[in-house]
């Protein structure tokens, strides 16, 4: 059984695949926050900008089998070519397993994952692994395609992740989790601090949540 908050077709807004058309498969639930505002202050991850509670989003629901869920994803992608699915959440690696990755690949999808790094990916691997470490949470993933750290985090500054092998290292300015899509301003202090860090540490590059800039899902 897979529990899905929402599924929608949009452009990847972040990281190396920015601008690429993808189905977003947002799983319900996370191991670093309940998703309830009353628990936010004491959560290991306290700045999350996403609602991942329940199954009430667009195309959300419970899916009994991997093929049923993969079929629902396939229906949202126009055509058979360049198929791309971004598995996110919540924490997608609480639910994504070899069976679902296979079912998606059988339907010609490249499978990307956005994870907090505290759970290893399925043994058969995925096609693109993005890790975004959070606060004091222990990172168990040792290599990934992109490391995309929200900046600044007192307990998770970039130096701590020097040992993680990644082709690409990004810093995303921490956005106000309560800001509406039309209120995101990238000329704030956090963004200035992130820019300065990248200038001083050129192994890191700036990542913007471009979907917020252009106001798409
Ligand atoms: C909502 S998370 C879901 C996937 C996974 N749980 C994770 O944390 O990577 C998707 C992406 O949004 C980023 N994110 C969450 N809250 C943010 C915020 N307030 N500002 C900037 N990025 C944020 C995360 O770091 C992650 O890269
Ligand atoms: N367009 C768009 N790009 C994204 N990249 C990562 C997202 C996420 O919430 O995981 C996200 C999202 O929610 N929307
Ligand atoms: S950003 Fe990721 S790890 Fe943090 S609460 Fe949100 S879904 Fe969980
Ligand atoms: Mg998002």
Automatic annotation (TrEMBL):
<dbReference type="GO" id="GO:0000287">
    <property type="term" value="F:magnesium ion binding"/>
</dbReference>
<keyword id="KW-0411">Iron-sulfur</keyword>
<comment type="similarity">
    <text>Belongs to the radical SAM superfamily. 7-carboxy-7-deazaguanine synthase family.</text>
</comment>
<dbReference type="GO" id="GO:1904047">
    <property type="term" value="F:S-adenosyl-L-methionine binding"/>
</dbReference>
<dbReference type="GO" id="GO:0051539">
    <property type="term" value="F:4 iron, 4 sulfur cluster binding"/>
</dbReference>
<keyword id="KW-0949">S-adenosyl-L-methionine</keyword>
<feature type="binding site">
    <location>
        <position position="90"/>
    </location>
    <ligand>
        <name>S-adenosyl-L-methionine</name>
    </ligand>
</feature>
<keyword id="KW-0671">Queuosine biosynthesis</keyword>
<dbReference type="InterPro" id="IPR007197">
    <property type="entry name" value="rSAM"/>
</dbReference>
<keyword id="KW-0460">Magnesium</keyword>
<dbReference type="InterPro" id="IPR030977">
    <property type="entry name" value="QueE_Cx14CxxC"/>
</dbReference>
<dbReference type="InterPro" id="IPR013785">
    <property type="entry name" value="Aldolase_TIM"/>
</dbReference>
<dbReference type="InterPro" id="IPR024924">
    <property type="entry name" value="7-CO-7-deazaguanine_synth-like"/>
</dbReference>
<feature type="binding site">
    <location>
        <position position="26"/>
    </location>
    <ligand>
        <name>substrate</name>
    </ligand>
</feature>
<comment type="function">
    <text>Catalyzes the complex heterocyclic radical-mediated conversion of 6-carboxy-5,6,7,8-tetrahydropterin (CPH4) to 7-carboxy-7-deazaguanine (CDG), a step common to the biosynthetic pathways of all 7-deazapurine-containing compounds.</text>
</comment>
<feature type="binding site">
    <location>
        <position position="48"/>
    </location>
    <ligand>
        <name>[4Fe-4S] cluster</name>
    </ligand>
</feature>
<protein>
    <recommendedName>
        <fullName>7-carboxy-7-deazaguanine synthase</fullName>
        <ecNumber>4.3.99.3</ecNumber>
    </recommendedName>
</protein>
<feature type="domain" description="Radical SAM core">
    <location>
        <begin position="17"/>
        <end position="217"/>
    </location>
</feature>
<feature type="binding site">
    <location>
        <position position="30"/>
    </location>
    <ligand>
        <name>[4Fe-4S] cluster</name>
    </ligand>
</feature>
<dbReference type="GO" id="GO:0008616">
    <property type="term" value="P:tRNA queuosine(34) biosynthetic process"/>
</dbReference>
<keyword id="KW-0004">4Fe-4S</keyword>
<dbReference type="InterPro" id="IPR058240">
    <property type="entry name" value="rSAM_sf"/>
</dbReference>
<feature type="binding site">
    <location>
        <begin position="132"/>
        <end position="134"/>
    </location>
    <ligand>
        <name>S-adenosyl-L-methionine</name>
    </ligand>
</feature>
<comment type="subunit">
    <text>Homodimer.</text>
</comment>
<feature type="binding site">
    <location>
        <begin position="47"/>
        <end position="49"/>
    </location>
    <ligand>
        <name>S-adenosyl-L-methionine</name>
    </ligand>
</feature>
<keyword id="KW-0479">Metal-binding</keyword>
<feature type="binding site">
    <location>
        <begin position="11"/>
        <end position="13"/>
    </location>
    <ligand>
        <name>substrate</name>
    </ligand>
</feature>
<feature type="binding site">
    <location>
        <position position="88"/>
    </location>
    <ligand>
        <name>substrate</name>
    </ligand>
</feature>
<feature type="binding site">
    <location>
        <position position="45"/>
    </location>
    <ligand>
        <name>[4Fe-4S] cluster</name>
    </ligand>
</feature>
<dbReference type="Pfam" id="PF04055">
    <property type="entry name" value="Radical_SAM"/>
</dbReference>
<keyword id="KW-0456">Lyase</keyword>
<feature type="binding site">
    <location>
        <position position="50"/>
    </location>
    <ligand>
        <name>Mg(2+)</name>
    </ligand>
</feature>
<keyword id="KW-0408">Iron</keyword>
<comment type="pathway">
    <text>Purine metabolism; 7-cyano-7-deazaguanine biosynthesis.</text>
</comment>
<dbReference type="GO" id="GO:0016840">
    <property type="term" value="F:carbon-nitrogen lyase activity"/>
</dbReference>
């Amino acid at each position: 059984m897979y529990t899905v908050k929402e599924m929608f077709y949009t452009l990847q807004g972040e990281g190396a695949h920015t601008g690429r058309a993808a189905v977003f498969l947002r799983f319900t639930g996370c191991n670093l926050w309940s998703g309830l505002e009353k628990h936010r202050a004491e959560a290991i991850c306290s700045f999350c900008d996403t609602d991942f509670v329940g199954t009430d989003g667009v195309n959300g629901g419970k899916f009994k089998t991997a093929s049923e869920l993969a079929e629902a994803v396939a229906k949202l992608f126009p055509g058979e070519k360049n198929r791309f699915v971004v598995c996110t959440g919540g924490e997608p690696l609480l639910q994504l397993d070899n069976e679902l990755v296979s079912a998606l690949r059988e339907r010609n999808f490249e499978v990307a994952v956005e994870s907090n790094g505290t759970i290893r990916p399925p043994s058969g691997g995925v096609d693109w692994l993005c890790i975004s470490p959070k606060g004091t949470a222990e990172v168990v993933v040792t290599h990934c395609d992109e490391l995309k750290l929200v900046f600044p985090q007192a307990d998770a500054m970039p130096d701590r992740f020097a040992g993680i092998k990644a082709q690409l290292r990004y810093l995303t300015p921490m956005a106000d989790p309560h800001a509406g899509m039309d209120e995101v301003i990238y000329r704030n202090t956090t963004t200035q601090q992130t820019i300065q860090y990248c200038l001083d540490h050129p192994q890191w590059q700036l990542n913007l949540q471009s979907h917020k800039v252009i106001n798409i899902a």
